[in-house]
Amino acid sequence: MTREEELLAKIQKMCDQDLEADVIKMIDALPDGERTYKVVGLLARTLSNLAGMIRSGYVEDVQDPDALDRRALEILAETAEEGKDDPNWWCRNGYTRMGLGMEAEAIPYFEHVMTLIPDDPETQEFWSDVPEAIGQCKAILDFLDHPKAKERPYFMRRSMVICIQRDAAYRLDIDPFVPRIAAVDGIEGLVCERAGDESVSTVARIKGRFYGEEFDMEIDRVEDFDPSGLRVSTYFNDSDIELVQELHSGYAVDMRFGTDDPSRWFHLQMCIADMAVPDMLVAYDLSACQALSGHLVRRIASSAVPPHPDFAYTIWDEADSRGTDVWLYTRGLQRMGLPDIEIMHSSPRHAVCHRKLIRAVVKYMFWNRHDNASSVPKIDLPVAYMAGGVPLYVRLLPWPEAIKDGSRSAGTPGSLRTRLKRMNSDSCVMFAYPDEQAVAEDVYQPLWMMDDFLDDGHEDDTKFIICEEENTRMHRLAMETFDIVERVARLTPEKVMLRLWLEDDDGELDTLWARLTKYVDRNNFEIRIEDDEHAGEDNGSQLAFIDETDERISTWLIEAGEHCVTPESIYLLDAEPGLKKELGLE
C-alpha cells in the first residue's frame, strides 16, 4: 500500500467516526509532498461536510461553516486543471455551493457530473444523489422566486395527535368508540368507514358535522413512533419520563378542523383522543410539534370548558450566530384556519415581552374570527398598554410582503431562505402602529421600533389585554374546578390565592391577586391583597367579602411546594399524586 493509499484509508476511517475536524488538522499538517490531488480533494470534501454538520447542529463547533465552505472552494479552484475530468471534483463544487446558498451556480456542476460517468445502471445508481441534488436546487430556486406558491405542509392543513398508550396490550374497539363520538354535543351525521384489512394501519375513517361544520377524521394504529424534534410542553413525573422513553405505540387521531371557534375544535380532538386511548401516557401533537401529558388530555376531555389557547400551539425561536437577532414564530395555528404569527428581529432582552405579545394576539384571534376570505386578521383594539399607559396597536402582514427586502439573506433568522422547510405564505409577521392616527391611516412600522417600551425590564409595566370571551372562559373553568379550592381552603386557606375583580380608585374594574386568610364558602371569605403587578396603597390590605357572587372570582391558584396548581394545570394533581396528600385532598 502506498503512502497515499494509507492516507486515503485513514481519512475515510476518521470521517466514518465523525472526526472531520481532526481530519482537517491532520491534512493541514502534512508535508507538501504528501498533499496529493486525491488527498487535497478529500480535504475539500471534509471541509464542506463539517460545514454541513455544524449548520445542522449535528456537531458543536465554533468554526464558521461559511468560512469552511469558502476554503473548500479555494482548494477546488486550485486543483481545477487536475479535476476537469473527475466527477468527484465537479460534485464537490456543487455540494459546497449548495451549502453556501449558491444553488444557481451549483446546478451546472452537478449536471456536468452526469456527463462524465458511464450510463450503466450500477454506476448511475451510485451517483443517484446528484440528480436528487439538482432537483433540490431547482426546488429552492423556485421557492425563492415564487414563495407564495408553496403549499402548506400536511400537518398545517390538518391536526394530527399521536396518542401513546400505557398498556402495550390495549387495542381500540371501534364498536363502542363511534357511538361515544356521536354522543358529543354538536356532533351530527356521523358516518364511519371501517378498515377491512387488518394489515393496514388505518382503523377507521369518520365523517360528520360539528356545530354545522363538516369534518373528517382518520384513526390509525401507530407502532414505534419516533418523537424526535417535539417539545415537551407540559409536566411529566419521573416515572412517566422513563415510560416515554420506552413506549412508542398507540393511535393517531388525524382530523380536518372547521373554521369556526378554534378552541372548540381543539377541545373536540382532545376528547376523541381520550376516547381512543383512555389510559394515555402522552399525546404527541404533530401540528404544534409538542408533547402533552396524557393526564392533561384526560382533564381537558372531562371538562365542559374549552382548554386555554396556549395548549394548542407553541412558540419557537431561532437566533443568529451571535444570539442577538432572534426570530420568534408559532406552530399549530394554521390547522385552525389562523395564520401562524411571527416576530422578526427580537432579542434576548425582549423575548419575554414578545412572547406575551404573541400570546395576546393569538387569544384575540381565537375569540375574534376574521373574514374567512382573508388569511390576515385585522386587530382593531390595542393588545397591550405599555409603560406610561401607551396603547400598543399591532398590524399583521403576510410574510412574503413583510420580508421582501433582503429576503434572500442566508444569515438573518426568519429570512426567506430559512423558511424552506418551516413556513409558508399563510403566516404573518407582526408590525406596530405608532399611534391611533397611524391605525386609521394604516401606517405601520417594524415592531422593533417599540423596543424601548417592550424591553423585558418593563415587563411589569406592560398590561396585555384579555378579551371578554377569555375572561368568561377562565371564570367558567375556575368555577367548574372550585371544589378543589374549597377543600384546600378549609384546611389551609393561606395556600390559596384568588384573582378577584376589584374597583380601582377611578371606579374601574380590574383583577388583582389576593391571598385567602379566612374561608367560609365561595361567597364569604377574607383576603389580603398580594399583587406585585399592581402594588400600591392597597397592597397588603385586608378585605372581607360577605354574600358575594361567584362573578367576583376570575381564577384561582393553589401553592403546593414547587408546583402551582391552577384551573389550567389541575392535571398536576394526577401527574404528581403526592400533591393530593400534601394539600389534604386524599
UniProtKB/TrEMBL annotation:
InterPro entries: DUF4026_middle (IPR053886), DUF4026_N (IPR025102), TPR-like_helical_dom_sf (IPR011990). This is DUF4026 domain-containing protein. It comes from the Bacteria. It holds the Pfam family DUF4026_N. Residues 159-307, 317-431 form the DUF4026 domain. It comes from Marseilla massiliensis.
